[in-house]
Specification:
mainly alpha; MetI-like fold; two-stranded antiparallel ribbon; 11 helices; 2 strands
Length: 251
């Protein structure tokens, strides 16, 4: 970003928004927005409480379990649709429907099926993340040059070797892109699941802070959640850049 001919750092816009937030909070124009300095002070106090770390462990553990299941099943489903035309015709429509549907409406239904515990949160994360992973994996598999597979077969590669050493590696850029988007959607799933169904983890803290009108703590926890989602997405993005050269083998 440039201003009056000077190149500004990428964080400049964030600093501007923080200043606006601080001014609005100081002027008390909106009661829901306390001063940003107060939110930072609440954040410092929040991370020193045992309740925060207990909620963090609950949230991260359910998130990780749901994401691992989503990655394994999503990649397998994407490879299947990318390689088998009948599977694409049979499952493709449903995957696209769930990828674009408002899954928040399905979360209360999960309570009936799995109860009001951690299982519901895991399934919620799984449902939010799996579809975009499957679609991106399918796109990567379909863009693989057929000559790569023919060459592998000519050298005596079996079916397992073709999938493990050719297809998955050649489609890796799209798979990682889907996983990155899946992580972001999974964060939405874990929060929505905790808020709507199982009042545990961060969902419990959000409920307490909103009902007690502790807006500094509410926004402090929101910042933590956003930072977590951004950090995960950036880590996967860095991994994507390190393996970009694999995309060249499909040209």
């Amino acid at each position: 970003m440039t201003l009056f001919g000077y190149r500004l750092p990428m964080m400049s816009s964030l600093i501007v928004w923080c200043l606006i937030w601080e001014i609005v909070g100081r002027l008390e124009l909106v009661l829901l927005f306390p001063p940003f300095s107060g939110v930072l002070a609440a954040l410092v106090d929040l991370v020193q409480t045992q309740k925060f770390w207990d909620a963090t462990w609950t949230t991260i553990s359910t998130f990780c379990i749901g994401m691992v299941l989503a990655i394994v099943c999503g990649v397998a489903l994407g490879v299947l649709m990318g390689r088998v035309k009948a599977a694409e015709n049979l499952l493709g429509m449903w995957v696209n429907v769930f990828a674009s549907a408002p899954l928040s409406a399905l979360v209360p239904v999960l309570m009936i099926l799995f109860g009001m515990g951690a299982k519901t949160i895991v399934v919620s994360v799984f449902l939010f993340a799996i579809w975009i992973i499957a679609l991106d994996t399918q796109a990567g598999v379909k863009h693989i040059t057929p000559s790569l597979i023919d060459m592998a077969r000519s050298f005596g590669a079996g079916r397992r070797d073709i999938y493990a050493k050719i297809i998955l590696w050649a489609a890796l850029p799209e798979i990682l892109a889907g996983i990155r988007l899946g992580f972001i959607r999974g964060v939405k799933g874990v929060v929505i699941g905790q808020l709507l169904v199982s009042i545990i983890g961060y969902g419990e803290l959000f409920e307490i802070y909103s009902r007690s009108f502790l807006m500094e703590d509410f926004w402090a926890l929101t910042i933590v959640l956003f930072a977590f989602a951004l950090l995960v997405a950036e880590l996967v993005g860095m991994l994507e850049k390190r393996i970009e050269y694999y995309a060249g083998v499909r040209q």
